[in-house]
Design goal:
The complex is a heterodimer of chains A (434) and B (181). Chain A is mainly alpha-helical. Chain A contains 18 helices and no strands. The radius of gyration of chain A is 29 Å and the shape is elongated. Chain B starts with a helix and ends with a helix. Chain A: InterPro entries: bHLH_dom (IPR011598), bHLH_ZIP_TF (IPR024097), HLH_DNA-bd_sf (IPR036638).
Chain lengths: 434, 181
């Protein structure tokens, strides 16, 4: 249900973002918006900075969001809400320290349009915060000269591209910019103002506006704290995930598939969830842990149907213990075996060992140096347990052949004495580990 | 983070892992075999001998897999460190060959362990003892080097460790089959 809600919000958001895109008073066409907006945002950022500390509402007519615009699109209104809700007491970046300007811009509350933009707080997985920010930043580009603000707002790029489709809410945008200028006067309760102002102000805003209001309230805290805290990029994965999800959800034509290159984690509070910074961080942590659990689940055979952390952990522990017991058992077996120091045997043994998984086809299609590039995992993991016969040789045959070739090459290098073994061993060991 | 999943997925290099492990293990096995005489009878002494040898082979196997995995992984580093400290301990005890030194060494090691555990306990333990925490404790004991990791990296290391362990078992099985034929 949350997802559906998000989708709805996303849809609404898109409309909004589109409107915002068209909004800039500069009258740029939506297609050209991103560039111009970014330019403007840069300038706006620079302008905004000094005033940031004192009064978040910048008196100028430009939009703080502009600064955010690194992205091409004004994708998410979330940025708007983000900006608005950040109160003056926290002039600091909502997002990231790199994004200083954006945060300032975001604090530009007066823009009613932004308030409405805020709408949804996509769930962590579904939308990247950065995306929203980015889209937001682009929204308002007042005609401020580009002062060359450092384009750190990488986030926005993807968001803008994903969300902002050129919809002609130009009039709307124009209004927003004006409001922005006016909004600076208010202090403190930016959030409320935004909310209030947004209500009358949303021509395109549908019922989601209310949702957005709620969300904006939540999101601001979330975003703000989150921004301050997270700088680093685990984001790539999460960003990618969010990117994809937003891509799916958004109906804009310009959904770019570019992965956001954020350097920090954007987390958005889900609707109805606590927006405390601690709980947000908790949620991020939990997501990471569950992701790792999923990976482990794939590794441990027969755990596809298990759902639940505790049971899964039990399985993992059992599996690791059984593997270790197998190693012990095999070492005992090897201890009892009479050593055969025949070199030929070792050579054959190596072949067997490396080809133990399965029918090794005599395909000599690969050179010796290709081994690491082969998708070896399947072959390896299928026959993890010795007792489990490998039933899918097709996976293993390819890498096996590669390895085999390599080994054979090595073997043929003059493997006729024990010194050759050392060479082999040295070769094996001298390979770059990772 | 992406690095984790990538790091695990690109265990491609499982191919090279396998090779490295196989070579190293075989080499060390050969050395070991040369040193020891084949077991002829199954007397009690030979049982002890077998047990001893199996322990050594097990250590060889873990050392091989740790070297094959490289120092990039926490668990392989932990294994190597443990082996090295143990070797050092043995070296010292053999050199001195006195009870005092042995006990001293043991005490030192024990203290280190205890201190480490205390640090871990102080570092961030929650008082909540749930079934999950017990499992986590157990997992930490099982995975080498897991005692001082946070949960996230613990899972990451566990995944990599499981991969390498399974590969190790596979190779050892093949070797044992080969030898026993």
């Amino acid at each position: 249900m949350e997802m559906s809600g998000h989708e709805n919000e996303d849809v609404g958001f898109q409309h909004r973002s589109e409107s915002i895109l068209n909004c800039p008073s500069s009258g740029m066409s939506t297609t050209h918006l991103p560039e111009k907006v970014s330019g403007m945002t840069m300038s706006s950022l620079s302008i905004f900075k000094p005033s940031n500390g004192a009064d978040p509402f910048f008196a100028s007519a430009w939009d703080p969001i502009v600064s955010l615009s690194q992205s091409e699109n004004f994708g998410d209104s979330s940025m708007v809400s983000h900006g608005e809700l950040s109160n003056p007491p926290y002039p600091v970046v909502l997002e990231n320290q790199g994004m200083n300007s954006t945060s300032h811009l975001v604090q530009y509350p007066s823009d009613s349009s932004f308030v409405e933009m805020v709408p949804k707080l996509p769930c962590f997985g579904s939308g990247s915060f950065s995306e929203m920010v980015g889209s937001f930043g682009l929204a308002e580009c007042s005609g401020i000269a580009n002062t060359g603000c450092p384009p750190k707002y990488t986030l926005h790029k993807e968001k803008a591209t994903e969300r902002a489709s050129p919809i002609g809410a130009q009039s709307h945008d124009g209004r927003e910019t004006e409001d922005g200028g006016i909004g600076s006067s208010s202090s403190g309760k930016r959030r409320k103002r935004a909310l209030d102002s947004s209500s009358p102000f949303s021509p395109n805003k549908n019922a989601e506006g209310e949702q957005h209001k709620d969300l904006s309230g939540e999101s601001s805290d979330v975003m703000k704290d989150h921004e301050e805290k997270k700088h680093k990029a685990e984001e790539n994965t999460s960003g990618n995930i969010r990117n994809k999800q937003t891509g799916k959800q958004s109906k804009d034509s310009s959904h770019s598939e570019e992965a956001p290159k954020e350097n920090y984690i954007h987390v958005r509070a889900r609707r109805g969830q606590a927006t405390n910074s601690h709980s947000l961080a908790e949620r991020v942590r939990r997501e990471k842990i569950s992701e790792r659990m999923r990976l482990l689940q794939e590794l441990v055979p027969g755990c596809n149907k298990i759902t639940g952390k505790a049971v899964m952990l039990d399985e993992i522990i059992n599996y690791v213990q059984s593997l270790q017991q197998q190693v012990e058992f095999l070492s005992m077996k090897l201890a009892t075996v009479n050593p055969e120091l025949n070199i030929d045997i070792e050579r054959i043994l190596s072949k067997d060992i490396l080809n133990s998984r399965g029918g090794n086809g005599a395909i000599f299609g690969f050179g010796p140096g290709i081994n690491s590039s082969q998708p070896y995992q399947h072959g390896i993991f299928q026959g993890t347990l010795p007792t489990v016969p490998s039933t899918s040789p097709q996976y293993t045959s390819l890498p096996q052949t590669v390895l085999d070739n390599e080994l054979q090459g090595l073997f043929h290098m003059g493997f006729d004495s024990s010194s050759a073994i050392d060479n082999l061993g040295a070769n094996g060991l001298l390979k770059p580990e990772l | 983070m992406d690095k984790t999943s990538k790091g695990i997925q690109t265990l491609s290099t499982h191919c090279s892992y396998k090779t490295k492990f196989a070579f190293r293990f075989l080499r060390s096995l050969m050395k070991l075999k040369k040193q020891h005489q084949p077991i002829s009878s199954s007397s009690s002494s030979s049982m002890e001998l077998i047990h001893k040898r199996s322990q050594r082979i097990k250590m060889l196997a873990y050392s091989s897999i740790a070297h094959a995995a490289g120092p990039r992984r926490a668990w392989s580093r932990a294994i190597l460190f443990k082996l090295q400290s143990r070797a050092r301990h043995h070296y010292f005890t053999r050199k001195r060959s006195s009870l005092d030194s042995k006990t001293k060494q043991k005490k030192i090691l024990k203290n280190k362990r205890v201190m480490r555990n205390h640090n871990i306990i102080r570092a961030g333990s929650t008082s909540r003892v749930t079934r999950e925490t017990k499992q986590m404790k157990k997992l930490r004991e099982i995975v080498p080097g897991g005692k001082e990791m946070d949960i996230c990296s613990l899972f990451d290391e566990t995944a990599h460790y499981v991969k390498c362990l399974s590969m190790q078992v596979q190779v050892m099985q093949a070797i044992a089959d080969r030898f026993s034929k």
